[in-house]
TrEMBL record:
One of its GO terms (biological process) is RNA modification. Pfam families: DYW_deaminase, E_motif, Eplus_motif, PPR, PPR_1, PPR_2. The keyword ATP-binding does not apply. Residues 570-662 form the DYW domain. This is DYW domain-containing protein. PROSITE patterns: PPR (PS51375). PPR repeats lie at residues 122-156, 157-191, 223-257, 324-354, 355-389. PANTHER family: DYW DOMAIN-CONTAINING PROTEIN, PENTATRICOPEPTIDE REPEAT-CONTAINING PROTEIN. InterPro entries: DYW_dom, E2_motif, E_motif, PPR_At4g14850-like_plant, PPR_rpt, TPR-like_helical_dom_sf. GO terms for molecular function: RNA binding; zinc ion binding. It comes from the Eukaryota. Keywords: Repeat, Transit peptide. Signal peptide: none annotated. It comes from Digitaria exilis.
DNA sequence: GAATACGTGA
C-alpha cells in the first residue's frame, strides 16, 4: 500500500513560496479559501504547523470545489505531502484527519494503509475511516470498515456508533442497523443523546418508523435533532401530513427542521404548501440557508413561479446566503422549467463550480425548450471538461436529438451511452428513442423498438407512440397501440382523445361515436384540466369551467371578447377532442372554458403589455387551445409559454416551438 | 484542538 501520497494535484503546491492564490488554488466565491491562505501565511513567516494545523486545514479543503482535485483522495494527498514534510505523520490528530479525508475523497486504500501504519489512537482513526467513507457517500464501504474494526477487536466508541448508524441509514441497510442497535444496547453507552439520535435517524431513513418511534419514546433527553429525524423520516415516506403534525409538536425548530418540512412538501408535490411554510419560517425568526433555498427554488420551478423564483435571488443576496453549486443547479432548473432558457444560461455562465448536475440541468433545460443543437454542444463541452455524464445526462442528450430531429445522431448517442459510457439504458432512454423515431415519422421502427426492448413498455412510451401516430396519421398502428395502452392503463382518457382525434381526421365518424359510447359506458372521467399562472407574486389556479376566481366575471367576458377577435381572423373551435355528451353549442363552451384559456384571459386582463405569459398545465394541451393560443400570440403580440405535462410550447407570432407535434 | 446525530440539485 502506498504510504506516500501519489501525485497530489495543485491544491497546496508551491506553498509557502507563493500565496495560495498563486498556488493554483483559486477559491470560488462559495468556497472558503481563508484557511489555505492562512496556512500559506504561516509557512511564509517560518512558523511550523503543529498537530492541530492539518485537521483544520483538511476541514477547510474538504469543501474545496471538485475541480481543484478530483478523485482518489487527491486533496488528502496534497495535505499528506505537507504532513510528511513536517514529520507529523505520527500525530494521531493529523493521521486521523488524513484517514478521514482520504476515505471521503475516494482514496480508500490510502486511508486504510495510513490507518494500519499509525497504530495509535486506534478507535479514533477507525472512526475517521468509517465517517470518511460516509462523507464520500460510500455507505457500504463505511459499514464494511465497521465490520473490519469489530473483527480487529478495536473498541467501539459512541462516535463509532453514530458514524456507522449514519452509514446504515443513508445506505438503507436496516439489517445491519438493527444489529448495530443490539451492540449499542449491550455496550452500555446508553443513554447518549447523539447515539440515540443516530438510532432514530437510522430507523427513520430505513422507513422503519415504528422502531424510530420506539427509540424516540424511550429517550430521556431529546433535542431538535431527534424530532427532525422523525419529521424527515415521515416526509420521506410521503406521509407529509404526519410529518407536519410532528413538526407542529416540536418544542423548538431550527433551520434544518424547517427545511425538512418544506422539502417534505416539495417531495410530496405540495408546492404551494412548501412556499407557504417558507413564508411562515420567515416569521419564525429562523434564518434560511442554502439548503432551504434549494427546496424553495424547486417549488418555484414546479409551479412555474418565475417571479418568486427571481425573488429568491434578491432574498439570498439580502440574507447573505451563498449561491453554491446546489443553489445554482436549482436555479438553472427553475428557469428552464419556467421556459426561460436565457436566464438559465446566465446562471450557468456565472457559476464558478459546476458538477454533473449543473451540466445535466442545462442540457435538459436547452433540450426541452427546443434548443436541441445547443444542448448537444453543451454535452460536448461537458465531456471536454472531463465531467462524467450519467444516465440522466443522456436523457437530456437524447431529448435534444428528438427536438432537433436528429434521428441518426440520437441513435449514435444511444449506442455510445451503452458501449463507451457503460450505461445500461432504462425505460426512459427507450422512451426517448421511441419519441425520436415517432417524431420523425418512423412509426414502424418505433413499434419494433418497443417490442425489442428488454423491459415492458410503460404507458408513457406507448402514449408517445400514439401521439406520433396521431401526428403522422398512422391509424393502423395507432389503433394497435391504443389497445395495448388500454390493457395497461384502462382509465387513460388520453387514449380515447387521441384515438378519436385520429378517427375524426379520417372521417370515421361511426368510430368516433362508438368511442364516445364506450367512454360513457365505462364511466371514464377525464382528469380535470388545471392551469397555474403567477401574477405579482400570487399563484392563480384555474380549473376548466371554474368560476371561483374573484375576477371570474371579468375573465369570462374578456375571454368572450378574445374568442370573438379570434373568430374574426378565421378561428373555428375544434371539438374533436371533446367527449362529454352534450349539444354542439355546449361543446364549444366546454373548450372555451379550458383552464389555459381562462388563465390567458386573466393574463391579458392583468399583466403588463409585452410581457411573456407563462402557464403551467397539468395535462396535455388540447388541439383547440393550441390553435387558439397560436392565434392569440399573433393577434395580441404576446409571447405565451405553456408547460404541459410533457412538453414546452413557446408561442410567438402565431407559431409554436413544438411545430404542432406533442 | 483528531472521529460523531437532523434538511439540498439534474
Amino acid at each position: 500500500m502506498p504510504l506516500r501520497p501519489s501525485r497530489a494535484r495543485g491544491l497546496l503546491d508551491g506553498i509557502p513560496h507563493r500565496g495560495a492564490a498563486a498556488a493554483g488554488y483559486r477559491a470560488a466565491p462559495e468556497c472558503d479559501g481563508e484557511p489555505i491562505a492562512t496556512y500559506a501565511g504561516m509557512l511564509a513567516r517560518g512558523e511550523r504547523p503543529d498537530a492541530y494545523t492539518f485537521p483544520s486545514l483538511l476541514k477547510a479543503v474538504a469543501r474545496a470545489p471538485p475541480s481543484c482535485a478530483r478523485g482518489g483522495g487527491a486533496v488528502a494527498a496534497a495535505v499528506h505531502t505537507h504532513v510528511l514534510k513536517f514529520g507529523m505523520e505520527r500525530s494521531p490528530h493529523a493521521a486521523s484527519a488524513l484517514v478521514s479525508a482520504y476515505a471521503a475523497g475516494g482514496g480508500g486504500a490510502s486511508a486504510r494503509a495510513l490507518l494500519d501504519a499509525c497504530g495509535c489512537g486506534m478507535s479514533v482513526a477507525w472512526n475517521a475511516l468509517i465517517s470518511g467513507h460516509c462523507r464520500g457517500k460510500r455507505f457500504g464501504e463505511s459499514c464494511l470498515s465497521f465490520a473490519d474494526m469489530v473483527r480487529d477487536g478495536v473498541t467501539s466508541t459512541p462516535v463509532t456508533y453514530v458514524s456507522v448508524l449514519s452509514a446504515c441509514g443513508k445506505g438503507r441497510d436496516l439489517l445491519l442497523g438493527a444489529q448495530v442497535h443490539k451492540r449499542v444496547v449491550e455496550s452500555g453507552v446508553l443513554p447518549d443523546l447523539k447515539v440515540e439520535n443516530a438510532l432514530v435517524d437510522m430507523y427513520a431513513e430505513c422507513a422503519d418508523m415504528e422502531s424510530a418511534w420506539k427509540v424516540f419514546d424511550g429517550m430521556r433527553v431529546r433535542n431538535v435533532v431527534s424530532w427532525t429525524s422523525l419529521v424527515s423520516g415521515l416526509a420521506g415516506l410521503g406521509e407529509v401530513d404526519r410529518a407536519r403534525e410532528v413538526f407542529d409538536r416540536m418544542p423548538e425548530r431550527d433551520v434544518v427542521s424547517w427545511t425538512a418540512i418544506i422539502d417534505g412538501y416539495v417531495q410530496a408535490a405540495w408546492f404551494r404548501e412548501a412556499l407557504e411554510m417558507f413564508r411562515q419560517m420567515q416569521y419564525s425568526n429562523v434564518r434560511a440557508d442554502e439548503f432551504t433555498m434549494v427546496s424553495v427554488i424547486t417549488a418555484c420551478a414546479q409551479l412555474g413561479a418565475l417571479e418568486m423564483g427571481e425573488w429568491t435571488r434578491v432574498y439570498m443576496s439580502r440574507q447573505g446566503i451563498m449561491m453554491d453549486v446546489f443553489v445554482g443547479n436549482a436555479l438553472i432548473d427553475m428557469y428552464s422549467k419556467c421556459g426561460s432558457v436565457e436566464r438559465a444560461l446566465e446562471v450557468f455562465k456565472d457559476m464558478h463550480n459546476r458538477d454533473k448536475f449543473t451540466w445535466t440541468a442545462i442540457i435538459l433545460g436547452l433540450a426541452v425548450n427546443g434548443h436541441g443543437e445547443e444542448a448537444i454542444d453543451m454535452f460536448h463541452r461537458m465531456i471536454r471538461v472531463s465531467e462524467a455524464p450519467d444516465e440522466v445526462t443522456f436523457i437530456g442528450v437524447l431529448t435534444a436529438c428528438t427536438h432537433a430531429g436528429l434521428v441518426d445522431k440520437g441513435r449514435e448517442f444511444f449506442q455510445s451511452m451503452i458501449h463507451s459510457y457503460k450505461i445500461a439504458p432504462n425505460v426512459v432512454h427507450y422512451g426517448c428513442i421511441i419519441d425520436l423515431l415517432g417524431r420523425a415519422g418512423k412509426i414502424t421502427e418505433a413499434l419494433e423498438t418497443i417490442d425489442q426492448m428488454p423491459m415492458a413498455p410503460n404507458s408513457t412510451i406507448l402514449g408517445s407512440l400514439l401521439a406520433a401516430c396521431r401526428v403522422h396519421g398512422n391509424l393502423d398502428i395507432g389503433e394497435l397501440v391504443a389497445k395495448r395502452l388500454l390493457e395497461l392503463d384502462p382509465e387513460n382518457s388520453m387514449v380515447y382523445i387521441l384515438l378519436s382525434n385520429m378517427y375524426a381526421k379520417s372521417n370515421r365518424w361511426q368510430d368516433v361515436r362508438q368511442l364516445r359510447q364506450a367512454i360513457m359506458e365505462k364511466g371514464i372521467k377525464k382528469e380535470p384540466g388545471c392551469s397555474l399562472i403567477e401574477m405579482n407574486g400570487m399563484i392563480h389556479e384555474f380549473v376548466a369551467g371554474d368560476q371561483s376566481h374573484p375576477l371570474s366575471k371579468e375573465i369570462y367576458s374578456k375571454l368572450e371578447n378574445v374568442i370573438a377577435d379570434l373568430k374574426n381572423v378565421g378561428y373555428y373551435p375544434d371539438i374533436t377532442e371533446v367527449f362529454v355528451q352534450v349539444a354542439e353549442e355546449e361543446k364549444h363552451n366546454t373548450i372555451y372554458w379550458h383552464s389555459e384559456k381562462l388563465a390567458i384571459a386573466f393574463a391579458l386582463l392583468r399583466s403588463e403589455p409585452n410581457t411573456v405569459i407563462r402557464i403551467v398545465k397539468n395535462l396535455r394541451m388540447c388541439l383547440d387551445c393550441h390553435n387558439a393560443i397560436k392565434l392569440i400570440s399573433r393577434l395580441y403580440g404576446r409571447e405565451v409559454v405553456v408547460r404541459d405535462r410533457t412538453h414546452f410550447h413557446h408561442f410567438r407570432h402565431g407559431f409554436c416551438s413544438c411545430k404542432d407535434y406533442w
